[in-house]
Amino acid sequence: MTAEDERPETAPLTKRDFEALAEFRFGIRRYLRFSEETVRRQGLTPQQYQLLLALKGFPGREWATMGELADRLQLRHHSTVELVNRAQGQGLVDRVAHPQDARAVRVVLTEQGEDVLGRLSALHRDQLGRMRTVLTLPRWQAPD
């Protein structure tokens, strides 16, 4: 969070602004709860699903380094390594030598990881479609 993120807007928030923020936060939490329950029913943790999604959704390629994943997942490097270890143990991801950097490895999805991610992401997409109005950014009201 930067100092700019913490700076309050010039106009004070109205009651409707608080209601809009609360409704948006409620929608986010409902979606996250749906996601957590859905991935757990498939035998994954929410973090493992996020890992698979980060790999498949990485811009421009089908792999990522540990450092890139740590950044995408907003985790410390050692936590990312542990997460990848567990996912690799379940056959969801694999490590491949990086051809240009002997110190780095590429993390890739396995066929099983692709299958699980495809099923789970379709469920998430459908849920987002159902929640479209709740997850729309609030429209700020002009002060009364």
Would you write up a description of this structure?
It is a single chain. By secondary structure, this protein is mostly helical. The protein has one domain: Arc Repressor Mutant, subunit A, CATH 1.10.10.10. It has helices spanning 3-6, 15-41, 46-56, 66-73, 77-89, 111-130; strands spanning 63-64, 93-97, 105-109. It has a 3-stranded antiparallel sheet. The protein is elongated and about 55 Å long. The two termini are 30 Å apart. The mean pLDDT is 89.
Number of domain units: 1
Number of strands: 3
CATH topology call: Arc Repressor Mutant, subunit A
CATH homologous superfamily designation = Winged helix-like DNA-binding domain superfamily/Winged helix DNA-binding domain
Q: Span between N and C termini?
A: 30 Å
Unreliable segments (pLDDT under 50, ≥5 consecutive)? none
CATH level-1 class: Mainly Alpha
| Class inferred from helices and paired strands | mainly alpha
Order of strands across the widest beta sheet?
A: 1-3-2
Radius of gyration: 19 Å
CATH architecture: Orthogonal Bundle
Overall mean confidence score, pLDDT: 89
